[in-house]
Amino acid sequence: MAKTRTTLTLDEATLKAVKIRAARAGQGESEFMEEAIKKALGLDFLKHQWANAENMTDDEVMEMALDVQKEVRREMREERREGSS
Predict the structure, then answer these.
(1) Alpha carbon of residue 26 to chain centroid
(2) CA dist 57 → 46, 52, 53, 61 (Å)
(3) Cα separations (Å) of 32 from 8, 25, 47, 63, 64?
(4) Where are the domains of the chain?
(5) Would you give per-residue pLDDT tens digits along the chain (85 residues)?
(6) Quick one: which of 40, 38, 21, 41 has its CA closest to 29?
(7) Of 1, 20, 23, 58, which sits most exposed with the smallest number of CB within 10 A?
(8) Computed from CA positions of residues 55, 59, 62, 67, in that sequence, does the dihedral angle turn out positive or negative?
């Protein structure tokens, strides 16, 4: 997949933590941050699930998609409740 350059503004403590964790993982900072962002967005979970969907029936795939949608909606409701408190 093509990459796009971007600029992030982080506080010093966060950047230091990124540098340390990336080094410990043997990764560059950009690679480490991309993986962390994908994980936070749930993209790693979906990639794993769809890889396993290869042998599933259409009904099983639909059920899995609906389960994921329900979970995302539940999380969004919780975030809204926390934000309004």
Answers:
(1) 20
(2) 17, 11, 8, 6
(3) 14, 8, 17, 32, 28
(4) 9-41, 42-85
(5) 788 999 999 999 999 999 999 999 999 999 999 989 988 887 777 677 777 777 888 888 788 888 888 988 888 888 888 877 6
(6) 21
(7) 1
(8) negative
